[in-house]
Structure prediction request, 545 residues.
Amino acid sequence: MRDAQKGSASAIEALFRAHWPKLYRAAYLVVHDAAAAEDIAQESFVAAIRRLETFDRERPFGPWLHRIAVNRAIDWLRVRQLRTEAELEDAAAPVQPRDLSDDALAALAGLVPEHRAVIVLRHLLGYTPGEIAELLGLPRGTVNSRLRRGLDTLRERLPS
Amino acid sequence: MRRELERIEVPGEDEAERRAWSVVSRAFSERLPAPPPPRRRLRPALVAIAVAIVALVAVAGGLAGSRIVHSVREAVGLKTAAPALTRLPTGGRLLVTSAAGAWIVQPDGSKRLLGRYSQAAWSPHGLFVAVARGHELAAVDPHGMVRWSLARSGVIRLPRWAPDGYRIAYLDGATLRIVAGDGTGDRSFAADVARVAPAWRPSATHEHVLAFSTARRELELYAVDGNEVVARHRLPAVVLQLLWSSDGDRLVVLSAHAIAVFAHDGRPLRSIRLGRRALGAAFEPHTHRLSVILGGPRSDVLSFDLDRPGGHAREIFGGTGRFSGLAWSPDGRWMLIAWPTANQWLFVPAEDGRRIAAVSGITAQFSSGTSLALFPGLDDWCCVP
Prediction:
C-alpha cells in the first residue's frame, strides 16, 4: 500500500490482482448480473484509487474496497427494484444444465439485497459480524439477525 | 456455505478482469501522487509569477474540441471539470432519471424533481413528460403536476410520445400498448415484444407509424391508425435500440455489433458491422449521422454518416471506462456524454473552436432525498417549449 501511494504501478497491479477475483465474485453474488458486477467492482477500484492519498495505510485495504463495492451493489439492487426490472429474465440467455452452484445462486437470488450482502460478506469474504457491522454502518444485532434470517432462508431453499 | 459461494460460476471472470485492469491501471497512471509538503514559504513575488504562468498555460491549453479528443483518450475524467452543473451550454432542457426519480434540468442548471418515477420521456414540444413507476403510467407537466394516470397489471416501461403528441406507446410487461395523449383510449397493440423502446416515425402529418421489436427478434413497422403492417424483418441479433432520424427518412436498428439501416418505409438499406460492443446511440439532429457509444475498457463515441457506403465513421470522443448514455442538444450544437466511471457529464461541441465542458460529481447532484448513490440515467435533451 505504501508503494502504491507513492505511485508504484507494480504495487497497484499486485493490489488489483489480489483483490479483483473476490471483489467481482462478491459483487456478482449480490447483484446477479455479470455486467453490473463488472461495473461495480471496476468503479469501486477506480474510486479507491482516487482516494488513495487519504487512505490510512495502517488499516487493511480489502475491507475499505469491499465496503465501497458492497454498498454500491446494494444501491444498484435497490434502484433496480425501484425500476422493477428484476422479475423478467433475459430471453437471450442460454439455457444451461443446473448443478448445485445454480441452486445456490438461485437460493441467494431469493434473499433481499441486505441479507444477500451480509451473507456474501460473512461467508465469501470471511468478515465477522462485528466487522460487517462496521463496514456497512449497521448495529451488530442487525447484522446478526440478517445473517440468521438469510441462512434460514437459504437452508430452506437449498437441497440438503 | 463458503464452499458453495466459491463454487458458483461467475460468467466471464477472465475477460472482466482484463477489461477492469485496463481501466484501473489507466486511472492509476493519470493520478498524481500527493505532493510533498512545502519546505519553505515562497516569496509573494514568486507566487505571483507562478500564478501568471499557470494562467497562461491554462489559456493556451484551451484546445478546440477535436484536439481535446486526443488529450483525454487515456484519462478517466476531465481534470478541468466544473464541480457543479451551473448551466447548459445551449438551449433546451434535459430529462434525467436517478434513484431519487425523474428530473428536469433547465438551461440555467436548475433542477426540478418531477417525482419518484423510474422512467420518463418528453412530449414532442416538451410541454409534458410521460412518466412510469411500477404499474403506473402518468403524464405530468414540467412542474411535476399529474395531468392523468393509468394503471396496468404488468410493469410499465419505456413510454414514448408520438411526434404530434396524440399517441403514447409503452410496454405493459411484454405487451405493447398505445394510449391517446390525453390518457384515453388505451389499448393493447402487440404481445410478446422485446424490452426495447418503441420508436415513432417523425412526420409532418398526423400519421402514426411505429417501429418496435418482437421477442422473436423481428422488426415491425406498423401504421397504427390503419392497423397495417408496413414492413417486417427478421433480425440477426437482439435489438438494443431503435432510432429514427429527425426527418423520418432513416430507421436504425442498433444491436451489440451492428447498425442496420432502413429507409422510411422499412426497406433495408445497409448494415454496418461494429468491431466493438455498442452501448447506445443517438441521431445528430437534422442529419443522417448517428453517434454511437462503443464500449470496452475504453469507451469511444463515433459518428457514422449513414448516407455514405460503409457508414464512414469519425471519432468524436474517447475516454477510459464506461459511457452510459449520450444525447444531442435540440440545435445539434452540443452532445452530452454520460461518463459514470469518471462521475462526469461531458458537453462536447459539434464544431471545432469550442472547448469540451465537463461537470463532475453528477451522482451527488441527482441523489436528493435518497441515500442511493448511483450515476443517473440520461433520458433526453428536449426542445425549448
